[in-house]
Structure formats: structure tokens, C-alpha cells
Amino acid sequence: MSTAQEDLTGRARLRDAAIEAFAAQGFDESLRAIAARAEVSAGLVRHHFGSKEALRAECDATVLERYRRLKEESLQAEPKQVFNQLPGSREGGVLLLYILRSAREGSPAGRQFTEQLIEEALVLLDQAVSRGLIVPSRDEPARARFLILQSLGALVLYFALNPPQDPEDFTTVMQDYYAHVALPTLELFTEGLFADPGYLNEYLASGAAGIPPAGPAGDTVSR
Amino acid sequence: MSTAQEDLTGRARLRDAAIEAFAAQGFDESLRAIAARAEVSAGLVRHHFGSKEALRAECDATVLERYRRLKEESLQAEPKQVFNQLPGSREGGVLLLYILRSAREGSPAGRQFTEQLIEEALVLLDQAVSRGLIVPSRDEPARARFLILQSLGALVLYFALNPPQDPEDFTTVMQDYYAHVALPTLELFTEGLFADPGYLNEYLASGAAGIPPAGPAGDTVSR
DNA sequence: TAGGAGACTACTCCGGTGTATAGCCATTGG
DNA sequence: CCAATGGCTATACACCGGAGTAGTCTCCTA
To answer: Is residue A191 within 8 angstroms of chain B, CB to CB?
Structure first.
């Protein structure tokens, strides 16, 4: 990772400090606090970035790009596995926290990230279906969207309700999370929930299924 | 609802205005903005509540209590159905928004609300299992926790990513949400996802299932 | 009818925030 | 050697937030 060499230019140090501060403390962290974390003066933010908003934008882009890189490095790309090993390194943990916070705030970065996850999930699901590992759906894109919304949402909520007291040990929270959801997830995915297909058949018979929800199909989460 | 009579005492008007303001604009809404919404002076907040924090606490309690009342009024108490009809009235919509925001922030109110939902879900699931409607789980409390975390988390995330442009039409967003998730939910619940039980069996054989996650069992979401 | 309590407002105060300006200092290129 | 560019700091500014103070008005009561 890039923090290996410790003496970066002030601009890079500010950017990295901002990412860490945003991840640990939220996006309301003050410029002065960020500058202090980077051990530079507050005015330098303006000098290099012009405004806090611009700094935030650069952080967003950097995080997204680093996440992409980390994901490609670990070649097995199933989202859950990525998330699972993401917080293994310190950088990965910061990235994860930053991303979850972005999603939680509904920022453009969060939206973009979610969209990306959904696309990847759709590809993976299609592959798994064609290999016979996963049962087909009547609406594959809707299922991909749904599954990401559920799993990402659960993670976001879990982190909101159980914030790591020490902003460093996201790893612990992450492990707790998986320890909690592993069994129910596997049960639900292999055995379902309903004992009989009545509800689904009712819904299908009602005709609501034929109507694609609304809006131009394919965007992140409707709207 | 209590806003039926329009001339309430300043205290009550402030409380209700704060609830609406928090729901629509977030908990960072300023005291002055809240006072303006209630058409009173800002100082009155201090006079009646002492501090913004205390006002917030009273709003939390009021919302929780009103939600409870609304839920009991509509006797069919399955969580999803409650959520579905909650935004039917204006008050219900405000309440829902307030609650989702609380959960998203991880505030005590959000935590309490989530906990409450999990307990209710556990009861309902147990009933449904004993009536043969739902397949049993190897760990019912974990499943209840998991299902609420997933569904509530998805809703929170959906609202974060698709905020209603007009803070009033949560109804539209809500309908969009259900239109999107209805089919995938029913499919997943009746047909599952995995074509064969290999993953689950692997997990069970690994022995991880026997170890209840961690910490004193039964709290909201671990920890 | 006088007194007092409480609802309510206008105004002040203080701290924190993002933004802006002016200048220092080192490195560099002519 | 010297000027100029750019990284960087110190300081100031304008603004807005919650909190605090003093005083007015109104209504109830003794």
C-alpha cells in the first residue's frame, strides 16, 4: 500500500489522512482535525484542493480506485468473500469503513459503489446459474439488486448499531457480523423460508410480477 | 393523531415540529429551523427542554410510543405489513422516516427500535414454524436477528440512496421499494438460492455452527 | 384587584467551521 | 548568484450553531 513510504508530499498525506478521518469519524470531521492528523496546517487543504468538497471528491475517487485494485488483487471475486477478507489489512479496513459510510449517507460515491456491486453480482449469479449452482430467477437483475441491497444494507446497519469502540478494530466487528449471519444465510439460501410455494404462486397469479417496477430499468435501486 | 387540534401548547408544537424536522432534514437540523417550523422563537426550546439533546430524547420517546400505538391499532402485526401500511397516513410516514434515520445513525432510539423488531419477529416466526408455514431453523433467534437486519438494512439503504426529493412523498419511495423487492423476496423465501445443500452441510460439518457467535447471547446485534 | 408564575421573545455570547489573504522558506533554473 | 515558483504556515474573517440572560406579556389565583 502507499503508506509504506512514510514521507509523502503534503497533498497525498492530506488525502490519506482525510480518508482515515472520514472513515473513522464520519464526513463531518473538520478540516482542522484532518490537517492535524496529517500533521500539516489547515490552510494547506485549501492550497491543494481549494475546498473541503473537492478534498472529499478526491477521497471518494481514491477509495473507489483502491477498492477496485484490492479486489482485483484477490482474484476470487465473490462479493461476500471480498468483504470478508477486505478488513484483513489496515488499509482494507479503512476502505471498507469509508465505503460503508458513503453508502449510509447516500453520497454519489456510495451510490456508485452500490451500483458496481450489483453489476458484479449479476454477472456472478448468471455464471452460477448456468453452472447449475444457483436456481434461476424470473428476474435476474432484480434478484441481483435485491441481494446486494439486503446484504450491504445489513452490513451498513450492523456497523451503525455496533460501531467499533476503537476505530481500528473493524476486524472484530466484521468477524462478529459474519459469525452472526453465516448460519441463517446458509439456511435461507439452501432451504428457503416458506414451507410451501403458496405465497409466491399467489403473487405470480396476481399479475404484479409481469410489471417491471417502474422507471427506466436497470439503474441502481430504482428511482 | 394529536395534530388534529391545531393549537397546541408551545412545548407540544415544538416537539412535533422537531420530529418532522428531524425526519425530513436529519438530526442536524438547527434549533432555529425547528423553532421556525413551530412558529415560535428559538429560545423557547431551551425554556421547555433545556437543551437540544433533551428535545431529541423526548422526540425519540414520543416516536417510539406513537409507532407502538399505530402498530397495535392495525392488528395484523407482521412487520413487513406494518411497514407497508405505515406510510399510508402522513403521521405514519413521518414516523417511519424518523425511525429509519435513527437506525441509520445508530442512535439509542434506533437500537431500541431494532431490538423491538427482532423480538417481535422471533415470536411471529415461532408461531409460523409451529403452524408449519415456515421451515424451522437450527437457531431461531439468530434467524430472527438476521432477517430483521437484512430487511431493515435494505430499507435504510434504499432510503439513503433514493431520498424522496419532496420530503413528503415517502409513500412513493416506499412503493418503489416493495415493487422492487417483492418478487426476489418471495422467490428467495420459497425456492432458496443454492441448487444443492453442499455449502450448508460443509458449514455444519465444520463445527462452526455449534459455537454461538460471541458475547452474552440475545442482545440486539451482538457485541 | 394585586401578585406571581410561567409561557414566550429579543438579544447576547462563545466556540467552532469553512474560507480567504499574506507571507515565509526552500528548492530550482537561468 | 538571484529570482521565481510552489509547498506550507499563521492569522484573520464571516458565519452559524447551541447556550445563556433579561425582560415582556398573559392568565390564574388569592
So the answer is: yes
